[in-house]
Design goal:
The chain has 411 residues and is α/β, with parallel strands linked by helices. The protein is 40% helix and 13% strand. The chain folds into 2 domains: 208 residues, Rossmann fold (3-Layer(aba) Sandwich), CATH 3.40.50.2000; 154 residues, Glycogen Phosphorylase B (Rossmann fold), CATH 3.40.50. The strands form 2 sheets. The chain has a 6-stranded parallel beta sheet with strand order 2-1-3-4-5-6. One of its GO terms (molecular function) is glycosyltransferase activity.
């Protein structure tokens, strides 16, 4: 069984063929399943009889559509689930694998025996109640009125899903406690980096008081990713006589913060070779990914490890930074002085920095890559199927009184 390829129906509210949705994670998971687990069929994202509403929501401004889409889907789940079940009847699948969109699984009753699996780095309720959610409060009045209903729908979906694959210990522990999940079905499987190919063996840039210090921050929102703290850290280090510099990828800091020591790439598309080269070069030259953000995971931390780049962040959510292995996660609320002090200890002990860079790359090679995720998921799916189906009934051994092989007259 472990060597056979499974037939997988892939369910999400956006197609995994879009390399940008869900920060590219949806595409990486689809490709890893195809490579390591089996043959993947993407189920349509349509809502059946409610499709006109889905299209109307899609035409709304993005900030409105994001909040309305999944709530409307959840409310119409009994209707939309029929469309999913109809698609499942078109073939015979071993696994219904759902990413991110728990609402897409709501009310779905597979039309024949199949394993259901789900992965996400957060749930709406856990995110809202966490330090991450409190750092990004809702700006829309009345949004909390549906909280109890949403949590009840989450509990129903997760308790009825055969295998839950969480990318961090944080989300696994929170989900197990909140929804009362069976720990044998709720597993931690780290996600990988948002890279098509792993970078080759990297050269650790020299670090010392006689070298420029390169800091890097990556993300779409300057404030949400901790940009002000990153910039303040650079400023504090410069005040101590260290030639600190900051490169920003993916967002634009306020213009009054720009200086000769700040390089900004408002957006880099990694599917464009020239822009990917700029992205890789920024990671290769940097000494630290300086990202004190409030987020539930963060692919940039995996990408940093892939480039042997230690990450500095806050110990919140499920950020994939293990203290002293691929960086350091400081206590929530830590300010620029704490980060500057930590960086300075490595400037004065470059051999410690080199060791940290090497273990960061090892963390990527062994844990934070999609091949490792795919192999782990394959093992978990096969094990769950074997457990569900039970042992194969073997033929009883010969007692010694059974007749010999039958010989046909023609023989």
């Amino acid at each position: 069984m472990a060597d056979s390829r499974l037939k997988i129906a892939y369910l999400c509210d956006f197609s995994p063929l879009d390399p940008h949705m869900y920060s590219g994670g949806n595409r990486r998971m689809h490709d890893a399943l195809q490579q390591h687990v089996g043959d993947v069929t993407i189920l349509p994202q349509g809502w059946g009889l409610a499709e006109p509403l889905r299209r109307a929501i899609a035409r709304m401004p993005l900030h409105m559509a994001l909040r309305l889409r999944w709530r409307a889907h959840l409310a119409l789940a009994p209707l939309i689930a029929r469309k999913v079940e109809t698609e499942l009847k078109r073939d015979r699948y071993d696994v219904l694998f759902t990413t991110y969109a728990f609402h897409a699984l709501s009310r779905v009753s597979p039309p024949y025996p199949m394993l259901t699996a789900f992965t996400s780095d957060a749930t709406q309720t856990i995110y809202r109640n966490s330090e991450v959610g409190r750092a990004h409060p809702s700006r829309y009045p009345g949004g909390r009125l549906l909280d109890a209903w949403v949590e009840s729908r989450e509990r129903e979906v997760f308790r009825n899903t055969d295998l839950l694959l969480w990318p961090s210990r944080w989300i696994k522990d929170e989900a197990d406690a909140l929804y009362g999940l069976d720990p044998d079905r709720s597993l931690e499987v780290p996600w990988g980096a948002g890279l098509k190919d792993a970078p080759p063996e990297t050269t650790v840039p020299p670090l010392g008081r006689d070298h420029p210090l390169e800091l890097l921050i990556v993300g779409r929102d300057w404030f949400a990713k901790g940009g002000p703290t990153a910039l303040a850290t650079m400023t504090a280090l410069r005040a101590r006589g260290i030639d600190a510099r900051l490169t920003v990828i993916g967002c634009v800091p306020p213009s009054e913060l720009w200086s000769d020591h700040v390089t900004v790439h408002p957006q880099l598309d990694k599917t464009v070779p020239a822009e990917l080269a700029l992205f890789d070069d920024a990671f290769r030259r940097a000494h630290f990914l300086m990202q004190p953000s409030y987020e539930s995971y963060g692919f940039a931390f995996c990408e940093a490890s892939a480039h042997a780049l230690p990450a500095l962040c806050l110990d919140v959510g499920g950020v994939p930074v293990r203290d002293g292995i691929n960086g350091h996660a400081l206590a929530p609320g830590s300010e620029a002085t704490a980060f500057a002090n930590l960086i300075e200890t490595y400037i004065d002990a470059p051999e410690r920095y080199r060791a940290l860079a090497c273990t960061a790359r090892h963390e990527f090679d062994t844990r934070l890559n999609w091949d490792a995720w795919g192999r782990s998921v394959a093992g978990s799916l096969h094990a769950a199927l074997a457990k569900r189906d039970g042992p194969t009934q073997a033929e009883p051994p010969c007692s010694g009184s059974c007749p010999g092989p039958m010989v046909h007259p023609a023989e």
